[in-house]
Amino acid sequence: MDTQVAILGGGNLGTALAKGLARTEEASSKYDVTITRRNADLIRYLEDDGITVTTDNTAAVEEADLVILSVQPTQIEDLVNDIKPVLDPQQHILISTMAGVTDEDITELTGSGFPIFRVMPNTAAAINQAMTCVGKTPHKEAEEKVIELFESLGKTLLINTDLMEAATVLGACGIAFFLRYIRAASQGGIEVGFHAKEAQLIASQTALGAAALLLDSDNHPEHEIDKVTTPKGCTIAGLNEMEHNGLSSALIKGIKVSYEMIEKIR
Ligand SMILES: NC(=O)C1=CN([C@@H]2O[C@H](COP(=O)(O)OP(=O)(O)OC[C@H]3O[C@@H](n4cnc5c(N)ncnc54)[C@H](O)[C@@H]3O)[C@@H](O)[C@H]2O)C=CC1
Ligand SMILES: O=C(O)[C@@H]1CCC=N1
């Protein structure tokens, strides 16, 4: 029988997870997905992909093996109060995507005995290109199921839970950080002669190529950069100008401020 997945909170991330699970034959043949949202009509379109859409959290949980909690941190208390009567430690593996919410926070609301996993995916799950960090737990059998689910949505990395906040910033917020780079590169591309759509295509495919070079080889970025920077050429001139203006420093500082912010989310 298919594994039953309930995604509670069909917002930006929840819908990305649902779309990814419906998008490939491999995932859709393994997982039966139900997604909930208070205003379910806003995500009714997911039914076209074979996903069950409902406002009824308890009905979704009653059927589920894997329960993904994907509401905002401030909304978790109401959600757990809603589903608590049907939560069963023998049946349910709880998976939280919530930034800054610890497993202790969740246990306080659910009561003890549940395998609770903290995961940090990103919105590229919608196209099965997510990076998902999964926090280690002692529940090894359940862990395999959680990793299998997120492997069907992209790549996974098992990490110590004290790194979940760092994973949030680098992997989840990272989507926005890289997209802002692509937007800026496109704007530069327009200044030097391209139409907006052409500039975006060139910048996006170049970003994808740069990332793929690293994923394919495991090389350090600077090793690949050295291959592009012709002596006295235009690459090193542009790169050094970017660094004089604080490119690397701005990124590092932004990541640190983002990290410090997680403490304050809840
Ligand atoms: N957006 C992102 O890229 C990522 C978000 N996260 C985390 O995932 C969680 C969700 O984030 P987003 O999807 O961006 O937020 P969102 O605000 O877009 O989605 C939350 C959804 O949950 C629904 N909701 C709230 N209470 C509910 C309830 N009791 N029953 C059913 N639905 C309910 C809301 O109506 C909303 O549609 C957050 O905790 C966030 O920290 C983690 C990684 C990436
Ligand atoms: O910005 C946020 O707080 C959430 C967590 C990671 C991505 N979005």
UniProtKB/TrEMBL annotation:
EC code(s) of this entry: 1.5.1.2
GO BP terms in the entry: L-proline biosynthetic process
Record localization: Cytoplasm
Catalytic activity entry: L-proline + NAD(+) = (S)-1-pyrroline-5-carboxylate + NADH + 2 H(+); L-proline + NADP(+) = (S)-1-pyrroline-5-carboxylate + NADPH + 2 H(+)
Pfam families the UniProt entry points to: F420_oxidored, P5CR_dimer
GO cellular component terms listed in the entry, alphabetical order: cytoplasm
Keywords: Amino-acid biosynthesis, Cytoplasm, NADP, Oxidoreductase, Proline biosynthesis
Pathway(s) the chain acts in: Amino-acid biosynthesis; L-proline biosynthesis; L-proline from L-glutamate 5-semialdehyde: step 1/1
Residue ranges occupied by any Pyrroline-5-carboxylate reductase catalytic N-terminal domain in the UniProt entry: 4-100
One term of GO molecular function: pyrroline-5-carboxylate reductase activity
Positions bound to NADP(+): 8-13
Positions annotated to bind NADPH: 57
NCBIfam families per record: proC
Function of the protein: Catalyzes the reduction of 1-pyrroline-5-carboxylate (PCA) to L-proline.
Similarity annotation: Belongs to the pyrroline-5-carboxylate reductase family.
The protein's name in its UniProt record: Pyrroline-5-carboxylate reductase
Source organism per UniProt: Fodinibius roseus
